[in-house]
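Suppose you are handed a protein chain with no further information: no name, no annotation, nothing but its sequence. What can you learn? This example shows the usual starting point.
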Amino acid sequence: MTDVEITKEPVELYKILKFEGMVASGGEAKTVIENGLVLVNGEVETRKRKKIVSGDIIEFGEEKMHIHLKR
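A reasonable first move is to predict its three-dimensional structure. Written in structure tokens, the prediction is:
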């Protein structure tokens, strides 16, 4: 599991996928989310703009990320 620090919360789900390099673009991020390929806290998430906060766990493919707020 990878730890990812965010500087503010909430952050939209598609932005995290894009900025962490899990997808090539924001458009691709939105597509994989819409297709049900992303889990947030163990549940399939299809909302592109789902608000992610510290403590959330995002899974996509073989990748798993734990989100932390940078202090």
